[in-house]
Amino acid sequence: MIILGIETSCDETAVSVVEAEGGLEDLRFKVLGSAVNSQIEMHREFGGVVPNIAKREHLKNLPLVLTEALKEAGLIFNFQFSIFNSENPRIDLIAVTVGPGLEPALWAGIKFAEELGHKWNIPVIGTNHMEGHIASVLFSKTEASFGFPAVALLVSGGHTELIYLNNWLEKEKIGHTLDDAVGEAFDKVARMLGLPYPGGPEISALAEKARNSNIEIRDIKFPRPMLHSGNLNFSFSGLKTAVLYYIRGITHPKSLSYHKRGTFGEPPSLVVGEGGLGDELSDLQKMEIAREFEDAVIETLLTKTKKAIDQYNPKTLIIGGGVIANKALRENLLNLEKDYPELKILIPEKSLTTDNATMIAAAGYIEYLREGGNKELKAQGNLDISS
Ligand code: KG4
Ligand code: ZN
């Protein structure tokens, strides 16, 4: 069957056309066409995604992105294609993200999907964005065959989770962040350093530069939060605050004495303004901070993932989410095969790490195979992983 995936949960407007075959035991997918429009430039000046701007841009861009994906799939041939006047170009099913994400942004995709479904007289399945990140590995060249049970580590701008999968339909969340998601921590630390949104790629480039340079990098040590917590949960807010204190310590050493120790949140004297404190740091200092922050994140994620593997003894480790675009993290996670030679490690191709609709089409197909799937087309900002 041919599935049209639609993704608008955050700042990417994405549409994909995917051919899906097989049952839950032998899923097979082929990407026929895919288009993504990123709104990053639009949100950059605000230092993060503004939900109503995201919605407006999705509404504007959806018809264009759809047309591009259908053309690439060879299902339409002229630029005059109009969703309101054209026949169904052989699509059998629409899969649209219903959550988690920014509700105004999600609604834009849902309304568009409903309209198309009605016009083309085909079913529309509500799809979970995080299940999309899990399904993103089904397009990887290393996928071949793998077995359940599996453990999935999902790291994105909004989530940091460990999921246990008994099979494609039976899932359980076994770990989550108690505060910031790891991508969010990257974005916030980048902002402190005066780097643009989204911060992940910026920090990652600086950290890599620090590792590969011959310059002597000072030994800073940031905390590895919850490493010994005895469970599989994460916390990145303390690490973020440690970075802020460190920066304040070198830029405004006296201001630290005004802050009462042991209070929660960021004291007013430490709140970072629009441009962060980046202007007051040298390039070398930024490199040192980026490298140590990234090392702390990687060590934390690796330790918790190993703990989950030891505890649940899975046959497969699935890794997904935008933060997996991070080269050092990717390499470290792939290196786990040395410690666990029996474990199959699945990771998406780089283009499928950040938000896209190809993964939504795949997750939508899996959802469809669950006795018809989720027909409730309602934006659910905090939608949890289904079980
Ligand atoms: O999955 P995603 O595209 O969107 C959400 O579902 O949230 O993830 C976006 C997050 C952002 O926080 C971004 O900074 C982070 O992924 N990210 C990275 C890298 N590329 C994107 N974080 C670290 N290193 C990267 N190279
Ligand atoms: Zn995502």
TrEMBL record:
The keyword tRNA processing belongs to this UniProt entry's keyword annotation: yes
Q: Which catalytic reaction applies to this protein?
A: L-threonylcarbamoyladenylate + adenosine(37) in tRNA = N(6)-L-threonylcarbamoyladenosine(37) in tRNA + AMP + H(+)
UniProt-listed GO biological process terms: tRNA threonylcarbamoyladenosine modification
Keyword Membrane in annotation: no
Binding residues for Fe cation:
H129, H133, D355
Q: What is its main location?
A: cytoplasm
InterPro entries from the xrefs? ATPase_NBD (IPR043129), Gcp-like_dom (IPR000905), KAE1/TsaD (IPR017861), TsaD (IPR022450)
The record's remark on the cofactor is: Binds 1 Fe(2+) ion per subunit.
Protein family? Belongs to the KAE1 / TsaD family.
Q: What is this protein called?
A: tRNA N6-adenosine threonylcarbamoyltransferase
Q: Which lineage?
A: Bacteria, Candidatus Zambryskiibacteriota
Gene, per the UniProt record: tsaD
